[in-house]
Amino acid sequence: MTVTVHHEGALPALPSGIQDAETTKAALHNLRHFHLGNPEVSNRIQGVTSECLPALLDPFRDARRLRFEYPLFLKRPRPGERPIAARDLAQPLSEYLAETVAAFAPEGDGARMLKDNLPWLERDLRQRLEGDKTQPGMEGPQPLHPLLDEAAERLLEQLQLDPKSSDQLRGDLERLRAAIPEQGQVMGYGFYPAIHQLIHVIRTLSGPRHERFETAIRDGIRGLSRLLEVEHQKSEAVKAPAHLRSSIGRASGLLDPEALSGLMAHSTGSVSMPPARQARIEQALATLTAYDDTKVRVRFVHGDYLADDSWLNQIPGFEAVSATDPCTEAMNLFDQEAARLGKVFAALRIAHLEIEDIYNPAIHDPWFASFGWEAFSKEELLLVPGVIVLESADLAATSDRASLTRLLCSGRPVQIMIRVQPHNNPAALADEDPFQNYRTELGYIGIAHRQAFVAQTSAARHQHLIKGFLEGLDATRTCMHLISTGLRTTGNETAINAWLVASAGLEGRAHPFFRVNPGKGDSSAERMDFDGNPQAERTWPVHPFRYLDASGATIECETAFTFADYALLMPRLHHHFAVVPPACESSDLIPLARFLKRPEGDTAQAIPYIWGVDKYGTLQRLVVSRTLVHACRDRLNFWHTLQEMAGVNNRYVEQAEARTRAEVQAQADAERERLVEAHQTALTEARAEAAGEVMGRLTEVLMGMDFSRLPSSSAAAPAAEAPARPEPETQAETEAEPPPTPRTGEEEELSFDEAWIDAPLCTSCNDCLAINPVMFVYNDNNQAVIADIAAGTYAQLVEAAEICPSRCIHPGKPLNPGEPNLDDLMQRAAAFN
């Protein structure tokens, strides 16, 4: 969560207790029965106090010390600029003030006192803006200049500076004020932050659009008037002496109008305009001339959404309409405005066609005869005064659901704003526990209306909220905005910030963000926007957590923020939690996030808990009821559904990836087997050929030998009987014909001592090149070969063979007999040779 706490609070501490087997056994018995929903143990367990907060939110207990996105500075684009992003319309005041000061004092020491006290100004302005909230709606945008002037005086009074420093700070404050536009406004996080931001967006966009429309009407009136004037000049009335006398004016005494009229009567003139066209032009001109802008830009239609709507009627261009069936009333109001403006749009289109002289009655007459809002262009639809339905989630899910469906299916560009309380089930009866049944997800219902724009967002994230407004208003189709603003839950001593509660709903998967825009395409990948969700790839967001154990040692760990943590913020849901006594230790007590990972059939003995901290900083384990555990599973089910739609942890994608990997692996294995088989065949043939060649040479040697020189069987006779050995004629003769080398034993088998790579099997994985890019290189087929065996070590060869996925590297025998650990390396290499 994007918040900052300006204090060094003590870490929550885990209390110590005397562990006793019997006490632990009794406590576990009671806690297990509480978890399972046995009401008989309610008087034997300790419930949570109203000040107990989720452990991860304890540092933000004091709302006065928080710095967060609000107050917002509402920006207005310069003339001619069109806002294209949320930042163009609103920005946190802290950021805006810091950027403004840096613009006129960029140096490190420039305006140093003002820069150091900007957080004080921001906090003071926030307190003034929040002020008295007894009048909902009246806490909306306020002019920044007067608020800043008052805050500046309070700051100077607070600091009590010497005259020189006071003058310097006052001068910097005046420079800051001068840099802020006169029309600049600022707003806090009040009762209706989403409505005020929507009003700001509409006012910013509608002004230039209506100025262009009024310019187009004036141009249409001017063009049609010229056409009728030209036609009027062709009429006989223009040639009458009386008309000529009046048109000449003061010079009429110098001319004879009767004579001039006689001369004009003989001229043939131009072809007259057909009566039907003239009537059409006159009708369009009359419609454009009679157009009167009502200046009403938006009508808010509501049932019981607003207790008091008078503040809306005080905003120029906005009206509040109360209705028992807001959705049906919204359709009627849109149809009325569309019918009124449809005549003007048709007249403006006819004017353009007539001025360009391209109106074709055969084509255009039937077109304009049935011209309704369905035929409006996008720009024309945006000119129709907006209709915004303010609806509560409870009514939208129950009594008003049928009319809501009709509106969502109608295609009319009506904006529907539904206020959502993420801990509630909008379809639950008044006396039902919100977790008694599976939750009715209005967002999923909206998605089922395939042609409607649906956004689930929160005022706690103003950029996501405004982006949804910009996209929805531009979509010119029915739009449903499901908005969480948080609740102000008050304890005995402190109030939890409403912005923080809304943020916790986002963190705990109670109110995940998404936008579905059918105008972007038919596939979920095109329609779905999943931005803004914290740690969107995880089941629950996980954050660092530090606390003191019973011995006082600091423990650092990571803790998940679950839906149960969010539910702990709601006092009406505290009956779903029970405090674990400090002395109770058991392996059956497990964190809720881990509990939810187990299959439901494997949790019979387990008791889930979350961490909580009371107002004294005592860390507590809080057992969660089985009913709330089911609610957590239900919220996770919806979260996983949205993840799948957004392509995050999509099971279909994972299955497709697994199938593709299996197919690729099967193809690679088949190819490897084919190559290995071919290699073995070639090797066998090579060995047979080599053996045949060796035998042939041996035969030749044997056939060419002089067997008379071989010792006979009578070699053992006395030397006297042996014949004399002839002497060689020369030494050269003897050396020229050396005796054949005798062979003993069987023929030695051929061996491959040098390292080699079976390149056709290489998958180009790059693993061997990462070990030694000089020894291993790629050939022209992008497959590995050994370029320089001396450029590496035998250890690198063995390592490359071991990590090669296709097992195509054969290390052979070491080139360097002095390399260390050769015995071990050769033993490892044997499997690959």
From TrEMBL:
One Pfam family in the UniProt entry: Fer4_13
Annotated spans, Disordered: 713-749
Low complexity: compositionally biased ranges: 715-729
Protein name per the record: Ferredoxin
Organism: Candidatus Sedimenticola endophacoides
Organism lineage string: Bacteria, Pseudomonadati, Pseudomonadota, Gammaproteobacteria, Chromatiales
